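Milestone M4 deliverable, item 7.
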Amino acid sequence: MKGVILAGGTGSRLAPLTQVTNKHLLPVGKYPMIYHVLNRLISARIEDILIVSGRQHMGAITHLLGNGDAFGARLTYKVQEQAGGIAQALGLAEAFVGDDSFAVILGDNVFEMDLSPFVAEFEGQQGAQVFLSEVSDPQRFGVPELVEDRVVQIEEKPAHPKSSYAVTGIYFYDHHVFQMVRGLKPSDRGELEITDVNNAYIAKGQLTYRILEGWWTDAGTPESYFRANELAQSIHYDLKDHS
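Output delivered:
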């Protein structure tokens, strides 16, 4: 499988920290935020990775990560010219992915679980898989409605959530996802929504889910960014010297 890290957006909820830098370059524990998702992919033996970000901070990201040699990976970069939503950013990965299946992680996800067993299971499969985590504030997230062992619908930021689970920013897709992205219409926010992509897979009966074990958080708000720093304090990566 290939890997895609989506590291765009304005990071406005973390202002003023993000006035001069990309959110994904802020420190989380001992490392820049983007290191955490990058190392989760590499530890799952995904080494061919595309990073999507906006024009304003792409230079800083490439300066930090280089070609990936320091991490034992091969990194490719793609500029998202306009902030048109997560699904729009995902669509930029089509040429990179080709006919492969791939893992997508939003760059502000910080989590404990090893993805290796799930990557090995999904590789070469049809459909999509989302990862869920039980949270105290599901209203902030896409929320799955679960019936027995199936996700029957995902609602984006519902006022009355139908479960206590959040759809985390960790997804596995086959290459047919790009056809679905092309068929999307902008939401009321004027963006192409990843929830609409996942619901399209549900409609085809091709979406499965897994529950994340251990801790997980996003780092997109001041509160969750503080929590990510608390949780990540003990994390250590063995990196080559790439100063």
